[in-house]
Every structure is written in structure tokens, then in C-alpha cells.
Amino acid sequence: MLLHLASWPEVEAYLERSTGVVVPIGSTEQHGPNGLLGTDALCPEIIAREAGEEADFLVAPTFNVGMAQHHMAFPGSITLRPSTMIAALQDWIASLARAGFTRIYFLNGHGGNVATLQAGFSESYAAWSLRGEACPYRLKAVNWWDLPGVQAVCRELFPVGDGAHATASEVSVTYYGYPQAVKTADMSPKIAPTGSFADAADYRARFPDGRIGSDPAQASPEKGARIVAAAKAALIGEVRKFFGA
Amino acid sequence: MLLHLASWPEVEAYLERSTGVVVPIGSTEQHGPNGLLGTDALCPEIIAREAGEEADFLVAPTFNVGMAQHHMAFPGSITLRPSTMIAALQDWIASLARAGFTRIYFLNGHGGNVATLQAGFSESYAAWSLRGEACPYRLKAVNWWDLPGVQAVCRELFPVGDGAHATASEVSVTYYGYPQAVKTADMSPKIAPTGSFADAADYRARFPDGRIGSDPAQASPEKGARIVAAAKAALIGEVRKFFGA
Amino acid sequence: MLLHLASWPEVEAYLERSTGVVVPIGSTEQHGPNGLLGTDALCPEIIAREAGEEADFLVAPTFNVGMAQHHMAFPGSITLRPSTMIAALQDWIASLARAGFTRIYFLNGHGGNVATLQAGFSESYAAWSLRGEACPYRLKAVNWWDLPGVQAVCRELFPVGDGAHATASEVSVTYYGYPQAVKTADMSPKIAPTGSFADAADYRARFPDGRIGSDPAQASPEKGARIVAAAKAALIGEVRKFFGA
Amino acid sequence: MLLHLASWPEVEAYLERSTGVVVPIGSTEQHGPNGLLGTDALCPEIIAREAGEEADFLVAPTFNVGMAQHHMAFPGSITLRPSTMIAALQDWIASLARAGFTRIYFLNGHGGNVATLQAGFSESYAAWSLRGEACPYRLKAVNWWDLPGVQAVCRELFPVGDGAHATASEVSVTYYGYPQAVKTADMSPKIAPTGSFADAADYRARFPDGRIGSDPAQASPEKGARIVAAAKAALIGEVRKFFGA
Amino acid sequence: MLLHLASWPEVEAYLERSTGVVVPIGSTEQHGPNGLLGTDALCPEIIAREAGEEADFLVAPTFNVGMAQHHMAFPGSITLRPSTMIAALQDWIASLARAGFTRIYFLNGHGGNVATLQAGFSESYAAWSLRGEACPYRLKAVNWWDLPGVQAVCRELFPVGDGAHATASEVSVTYYGYPQAVKTADMSPKIAPTGSFADAADYRARFPDGRIGSDPAQASPEKGARIVAAAKAALIGEVRKFFGA
Amino acid sequence: MLLHLASWPEVEAYLERSTGVVVPIGSTEQHGPNGLLGTDALCPEIIAREAGEEADFLVAPTFNVGMAQHHMAFPGSITLRPSTMIAALQDWIASLARAGFTRIYFLNGHGGNVATLQAGFSESYAAWSLRGEACPYRLKAVNWWDLPGVQAVCRELFPVGDGAHATASEVSVTYYGYPQAVKTADMSPKIAPTGSFADAADYRARFPDGRIGSDPAQASPEKGARIVAAAKAALIGEVRKFFGA
To answer: Would you state the pLDDT for residue E198?
Structure first.
């Protein structure tokens, strides 16, 4: 069940049978010459929606702009500063907790979100910890590519050049979800360089077309379908465990 | 063109022909017994996407959680505090301005956002005004129902009971966009009460099923199609004026 | 009764008979060649004080610096950023609520405050709404020129050139309150241009002497007296309704 | 010259002959059984206005609500949290600096403001210090009772029972400025207890009627006139030195 | 007992016999040609540790970076903005209060911290005062050189040239604590100039080698020992009074 | 060279030969029955100081209170909220960058800091990325136990029961640094339970004596010496690489 397509009485009824919710969270940032700016938001959204439909759990709207400061030298990228993202997470969490949700599972699509997301969880817990009261809810964040079994599929599909940013895997997932948006682009070198980065100027200097370590020309909707199938199954299992915990 | 389905080189190319972008902005909040929690985000998203496709302008991802404190007594509602929303708007605006956008048009779907959105614009301008530098971008927010000609269509379709929240019009727009989510619900009284409100407890006491002044049982996908057609045409005209200003 | 000229036992006694208070709120910003920088604070202050004296309600000190970023290119203007103004409003409201006030009526003198003021109210309510507790107080903001009957007087006095900023009406109100501060100035054109604006540089470029749409040379203390009389009577009625609600 | 009764061209002309401005800053808080809630804002306002008129310097509107957390157990008191007050000071200072003021002199009427005011100055300077740029303006805060010669007059007028809060001196100054607000009240003991305090509950427990160490029944408009005369003369000297520095 | 060298069961046991704690608080900032950058943190740390050992009270870790914006033109200086320092103080205080501490005594080593520290205390109290609840803890800040009897020793040791920053006294205290860090440097003039300052650029222009009014070439470990002995004895007395209050 | 024991001219001279600095960063939080509350701050401090002395690099004062919300149910623990810690990091980084440091290496001693530290780095970079300027400095954070070769030593010393919190390794490091603080305590079970946690109440319920997975009764100063030796050597290599990058 998608929260934004549900009515409040439907959510009220849902809360009778479960107090867990899944929140897809991503980013809007460059994903190389043939990847979509929305990749990191779309991947968890696609996976969560399919899983939620199959397993009857509630999927919140996607937190679609995240921490992407390092991509700001590429047009179309949008970032929250970490302090803003932490504030926004407090409000999302407080709102869901207010309604009675006690298990909030963030399915994350962007490595750059991980630290700020965890900091946001700690900020939320800290309010309870400093007051000396027990927090009534539990928060969890998992990257979709870290769901059990997903990496194996990706490695099988892309033994070479899956990469670290604008990966062949994530581009495939979005192509599966949005086949009308499949793009082709000349990319040179075939496999992008790897390495670390600091701010946006540094990132662009090191990774001129935006990719890190990837050859996303390999991406296809069909491969995306395989990845989504694996991720969906894994997510259902993980979510059931977490909601039941 | 949808920003999140575009690549960064596509946005770079777009910026050669236009430095304007449309941002749908809404809310995730109860919309009565048969309305979708995502109504206020979905309406501007639907309209902006159709208009953007027809008129080749860029549509950003939807700012999908807004200022909905008064709906917090209904499960499924999510709010940002105004201070958080202002911070998030600063980051969206700064990111888009960084890329070279000089005209940012927010198509708004939620009356409760209006004040905070304007405050956010002023916060953004204030940084330039206090430094004594000229701000290179212009910000504009328009509610989709205030686009020229839209109210006339709504009044014609719903001469009675369009209402002020969970309106027959907005529910129709979402039913047009998501026919699979059409819902039926007994609603009594047929037309909801009207009035003002303060916090969430006050709101729920005055409007027990969430509607204000509306009879959204009249909503249908077909009526939504007519509203969207009118809004799309109007938006194209407005946006062209704004981007050219 | 003016709060700042009262003692705390007098306020304690007042709270026995009423838990309502009126807060004049304005701005310190340019008001054209012959208007006072304090116009927007002085107008609601003058009206509220006269009304409070006649009808025995409590008038708080004036919130005298508001959201005036767009006037920063004219010396003497002082602004709060919206985020600061929202924070300050939280503290004023919390302080008054702490003392037992349950109805706080802001009589506003500045159009530029409206959005931030409403955002500030929502910020205050949101704390209660997210905690799931009922807020014990009600907040209301009304522009003095929107009080019932006031516009009619202004239109009668200034059928042409009342304008939108540095209006003949508001300048008259301050001249009535501070006849020693009546000023004359050559203004050309006689009626200032109209239009919208963004940041301070944009404002000054469009409205070189600060006025928008007005011919404030028509202002006089006598005309101000008529406006104040109308506003005072209206305010008393409005406040009684609100305090009794 | 009072800024709020001046026009912007008058301030522009003033800036040709001086880039200094005096800002009265006070508090709205209980001042015992016969003292005005506005005492701490009114005292510097009265002194600054008389001095500004005599010596032709510019006096800004009064920053009339300050840091008064310890008075919150007495109705009518309004406080800013220190963090809010620091934010507001940044905006006042930035606005005045933007207009070209380089010397901003805060005439303070509330001991409880001193720390936060200094912290606010440091916050303002820190922005320049961390950027490695020279700050173009200088900030100064002086309590009116610390102006040269003022304490001598107060001690002469009130050899016993001037006190530390709701002092006979400050009540006299307000009675001089607002003779219509002179109040009488039984106060027991005649001279209030002395000591320190923490939060509002602690303050009220130690000082049940709000006074600290004072016998303000001795206050009179005539005595206030003498204090104001001394303070005015001293302020003029101090301001000239500071503006010329 | 040093908190950071204790285990939590040891602190739990301590809380059975006392709910008071001493927090050394200082700054990391230039202290002239022969003074240590850590002087202001080390002095209260040295004194508090010796006193805590002798009198069995708990000493928290040192708050070692404070408000030093004016020293930023000298390398090695680190500052918190006042707003940051206030936020950090809230967290330290809340944490200690959460554990059951009711008397928190800050032994301060930096004049530039005083205002922000007091503002931080007020911020902490204000939360209780605005809620109308009694705050369960008391906060106190004392500069080590203001402890009873300390100034007399310093004046005796340094009848000339103790100064106001990079004082002979404070440098002596650090030389006593860290004899391996004794430094010699040519300083001209022998006694540094005195005066006030604004931002960092202003400070460096007025005090080119960082000292204010001091001749710290007189400093020695032996003199430091005498100062520490006096301060330790005084601190024990003061802390016993405060913890027992 | 320890920054806090250096003078500013010594730092100025250092900057001629290197623009890199190491900042030990830790936490003040319970470390089980025999571990020190300061463990996480002391470990990186001990290692950095020894390495800095040997290899002549500058070591800043220790950031000694970190993100420890989950330990707040154990007395003596002190936490910063993540938002506060991010603000404090901005100020430390800005101060060091202002002085000319271009490589800032945080040697971290607390797993709970990692996310907030990374978020703080991104906050710092984001300011540059959004302005479109290249950031002149680079930030790096490494946990001391992740330095090359350190884990091998720990595993050799503690093949069983090193654990995840209050580890035998970290307790050993502090015992090496502070042999006077070696403690003994009965701990049951010998090896603490393992698992994850949310807020402080949850943590204490799962890990009643504070340890996670560890048997720190094995700790000794001698074992600590071996770990420190390995970490010191590794740190010198890492820092040289980073400073030279």
C-alpha cells in the first residue's frame, strides 16, 4: 500500500494490523552521461513499491532529495545540507510516530545519505535519551544494494564495471522502472576512474563525466528486472523481521 | 522534461535554451474519507508534468511533504515544521541557482504551504539584500487552482460542494492521474462543515472526517481530466511569461 | 491598558477578567520621501492603543522590526530574516501563554509580515500537533487596513493614489499620531509605479523613491484621524469576538 | 533624530554627517508592585531620545523585549531565549551596517541582557574573524546607570533602598517619562530581600513581589528628571567619543 | 576524582554522596610569544584537578575550545561561535542533569567565555521558565582568577605587568603544570599595550604579538605553584558552599 | 607538537613546513565496569600524541565529548546532539582553515561519532559546493582501530572477547596511558552480550553493565603498550600520506 495513494481511514485500518512503514529515501543528483538524475530516489521507490504491494506493507512517499553536495558541479543536482536533512528527518519521524508507527524502515538509494541518515536517527533518539524516557519507535536504514542476495545478482550481471557511482546496476533498475527514459551516451573511458572526493569542485575534477568506476552502458531494463526481483524478495523478508521485532 | 528522468548532460543542454524550472510542491496529509493522502503533491505534479511535456520545460522532482501541522490528528499525515521547510527551500533554491537556473516557479498544491513558501522566498532574497548584492534569480509560487481559468472549470463541474479541503476538484485530479486509487466512502454530512482552525486537535474536533466544506463523492477521473486540461494550458502560458521575464 | 505601562499585579488582575491580549506588529522600513520609517509599527500601535483604552483590553509592546528584506536598499530600514522572526514569535507567544493568555491577536501593519507571521503561528501550533496535545491558545493576525469598514474610509479619502506601499492612508495615520513628524517632499511621478518585486536591489530598481502606486502627498493628520476612528471601532468589535471565542 | 519618525532621505542625509546610531535596548518584565513592565525598555528610550534631540544623533527604535527568563513567573513578562536574541541582534546589526552605519551604540536598560548582548556582538564579529576580513563596524553596549555620573545622582537621591531590581532610580525615570503611569502599592518588607537566582521558579520563591533589594516607593517623576538630566549629558559625551572613534 | 578516568559505577557511587560536579572551561587561543595556546583551558584544569583530588569532588573533562573570535588572526587559535557554544553547553548540562547532577560549577579560564557562558545558562533555565516548571539544577561560573585570595597572590608576584591577556599569572600556572613547555621569547615592548578590541583584524592591529598589558617574561613554574596553591584552596571552599547550597 | 602546549609563533613556524594537523576526537561515555568514561577520547589522544612527537606533526586539543546518546542511561556519560556536534565541527574546521591548515585529519576513538563526523564534513564542504567555489582544505576521519595493522595486534592479544564496546583493546590503551586508573570489577557474564540498540533506555536494557561483546578484564597496560606502538607507527604513515596528498 502506497501511503500517498491511500486515504487516512485506510492508514488507520493498516495500523490495526501493523505499525511498520517503509520510507524510500534517495537523492537527486547526476548519475553520469546515461543515468537519470533521480536514480537514487527511484531505485528504492521501485523496489519498495513492488515489495509493499506483494507483502501488504505501507510505503511512504519518497524522500527524494538527499545529501548530494559533492555532485553540485553537475547541473540538475539538488542537495540538502546535512543539518537541513537532519531537521527534515526529525519531522518525518515525529509525524509518523505521532500516528502510531513504531517501526520506520528507510530503504536508502544513496551512499551519500548514509552518514546523515544515521546522524538523524541519533538526533531523534537523543531527545528521548536526554529526557530519560524510553523511545517508543525503532528506526532502521538499509541500502537496497546491501539487501541479502542483491550484490550476488549484480556481480553476476556485471562482473566488470558495475562501479561505485552511476553503477550499471542502479541504472538498470531505473531503466526497468522507466523504460521510456533509457539513454545512450558515448562514455570514455569505458570504465570510469575510481577514488575518493571532497567537495563538488574536487569531485568534478576527478570524475569529469560524473561516473565512478562504472560502465553503465551495460545497463538494461531486463537486467534491472532481475535486480528488482532479488531486492524485492529480500526486502520483504527484512521488513517482516523488523516490523515483528 | 522531468528532471529526475533526465541526465545531467540533458539538463546542461536545456540550460542553453532556458534557465527556468518548475517545481511541484505539495503536502502529504489527510484528504477526507475518499481522498488520497498525497493529493496536494500529486495535483501539481500531474499538471506540471503534462504541461512540461507539451511545452518542453523542465519539471523538478516534487517537494512532497509540506506544512501540514493541522492534519496531524489523522494518521498518514506528515508535516515539516515551517522552520524546517524554510531551510529545505533554501537548499533546493541554492542548488538550482548554482546550476544556473534564474527562474524557479513553484506550482503549489496546498494552501497550508503558501505562507511558509513565501517566507522561504524572503529568507532566500534576504541573504542577498543584507549583503547588498543583486539576487540573480526570481522565485514565484502559484497555486494550481489559481491558474487562470481553472476556478471557472471547477465551479462549472461542482457548482455545490467543491469545498475548501479535500475538494471535489483536487480529488478528481488525483483520480484522473491514478484511476486505480479511486475510493468510495460514506460521508456524512454530505457537505462537510466550514470554518477555520488552529492546531491539529482543534482541526479534528471541528472537521471530524477531515473534509472542509466539500462533497468529494462527486469526484471522478473524467472531471479531473477536464481540470487538468485547463490547468495545463494555463500553466504553459504562465510559465512562458515568467521564464521570459 | 498598555502592558508596558502596567505593573505585574495589574496584569494579574486583568487576567481575572480576560485572557486576551493584542500585539501590534509592524516593521521599520522606508516609506517613501515623506513617510516615516516606523510607519508600519506606528499604525497598529496607534490604533491598538486607542482601542485598548476605550474598551479595556491589554495591548502588548509593539513588535517593531519585521520582515523587510525588500527595503534594504533604502537606509534606515531594518529587517529580521523570516527564520529569526519565527523564532522571536515563538518566544513572545510562549511567554504570553505561560502567563495564562489564551487569545493572542496580532494587529499587523506590514504586508511583508503576513507570510512569516502565519508561518510563525504554524510553528507554534506544530509543537503541540506533533506531540499530540491540544494547544491551549489561539493566535490571530489581522492587517489594520483589513478591519471591517476601514478600506471604505480610505477609498473615500483617497479615491486616487492611495497605493500599495507608503500609502496615503498609512502616512496619514502616522501624521495623526505624530503631527510633529509631518514631512513634505517633491515626489515625481505624482503617483508611483506599481508592480511586484523580489530582493532589495530589484525593489529599488523598480521603485526608486520607495513608494508603490501611491501619492502620499495627500496625507494629513485630519485624514489620519478619520481612519483611526474607523479602525479603532472595528478593532474593538473584532477583538471582543476573538477574546470571547 | 528618531529613526522611526524620520524618512529614508533624512537618514541618507544624516549618514553624510555621521555613521553612528544609538539603539535603546531593554526588556519587558515585572518590576515589582509599583514598577512598569516596560521599565527596562523605557529608561534607555527616554534617555536616548532626549540626548539624541539635543545632540542631533540618530536613535533607532527600541529593542523592547530582551532576555528575561527569570521573570517568567510574573504575568506580563516576555522573554527571548538567548539564542533568539542573538539571532535578532545579527539582523539588526546587519541591517544597520548594510545602510552604512559603522558605529552602533546600544544603550541598555536591563542587566539580564548584558551577557546575551555581548555574545551577540561576538557572534557578529566572528563571521568576519573566521572569514579573515576586517569588520567595518564597531559595536558598544553601555547600561544607562553606568554612564559617568549617574550612579552619584542615584545614590544622592536614594541613599537607602535603591536596590538591584525594580530600583527606585529606574522607576523614577519611567515616572518622569510617563507621569500618568505613577502607581502606589503596599510593599512589605519596605526594602526587598537581596540575593541571586536561577530560573523563574527560583526567582519568584526568593523575591515574592519581584523586587530585589529596593524600596521603589521612594520613586517620583521629579527624581526621575534629575537622573535623566545626568544620564542625557553623559550619554551625549560618550556617544560623541564613540562615533568619533 | 576525574570523571574521564572514572568508571560509570564509580560515578554512580559518587552521586550517592554528592550531586555536584566541576567543569573546567577554557579556550584554545594565542597567548602571546611565550604563552601556550591552551593556557585558558589548562589553568582551570590544573586547579580543578588538584582541588578535586584533595577534596574528593568530581571534575568533568575540560570544555577546551571556547569563544575566541578575536584571536583568529593568530594561527593555532580555535573558536566556537557563541551560538554553537550555547548549543554545546545545553548538551553538557542536559547530560549531567540527566545523570542526577544538581550543582554544576564551571571553573572558567577565559574572559571571552563569560558572556556566552552566562547566555548559555539562561538558555538552559529558559526552557524550564517558559514551561513553568522548576529547574532541578543550579549552574555557576567563576573565573579562577576571581577565586577569593588569588588576585592578592598575583599582585604580590607581579606588581607590574601581570596584564589582561597572556598574563604573567596564567602563563605561570601553565608553566607549573607543564614545565616541559616553558618558552622564552623576545617581547617588545616589555609590557604590551592595553585597550579594547572588536573583531580579529582589529585585535591584531592593536596587539601585534597578542599580549594585552602584560609582561609574561616574568612567568615561572614556581610562581605558578603559588598561584595554584591559593586557587586550589579557594576553589575547595567555594565548591563546598555551592554543592551544599 | 601539541597545539595547546605550543605558542602561536611556533604554530606559525610549523605552517611553513606543513599545513596538516591531527585532531583526536572521542567521547565521554560509560565503558563498562572497569573502563574509563574518557576511553574514547583518551585512546586517540594517546596515540596521536606519541605519533606527533615522533614524527613532528601538530596535534590539536582533543574534541572530547561526542555523540553518545545511547549511553545516557549510565551516569557520567555526556553527549552532544548530532546537530550540535556538526555545528561545533564547522567552527573547529573553519578556525583551522582560517589559519592556513589544508589537511585536517581526525583520529577518531568512538564508533558512535562516525556518522555525525562524516555529516559534519559534508556540511563543511557543502558551503563551498553550493557557492561554486573550490574548497581549499581536505578532511579525513579514521578510527584508530582501523589503522593498518592494529586489528591484527588486537586479535592476537585478545583472540576471544575483545568485543564491540568497552573492548579489551581500548581499555588496555587507556590503562597504558593512565596506569593509575587501572580498575578491577566483577563482570558477569564474562563476555557481554552482543547486538544493536536504539536509544539509551534500549541500550541499558540490552547491555545492563554497558559492555557489548567484550571481556575487558583481560585489559592491561602492557597490552595497551603493544597496541599503541602499532597504532602510532600506522598513524605516522597515514598522516604523511594525507598531508602530502
So the answer is: 98
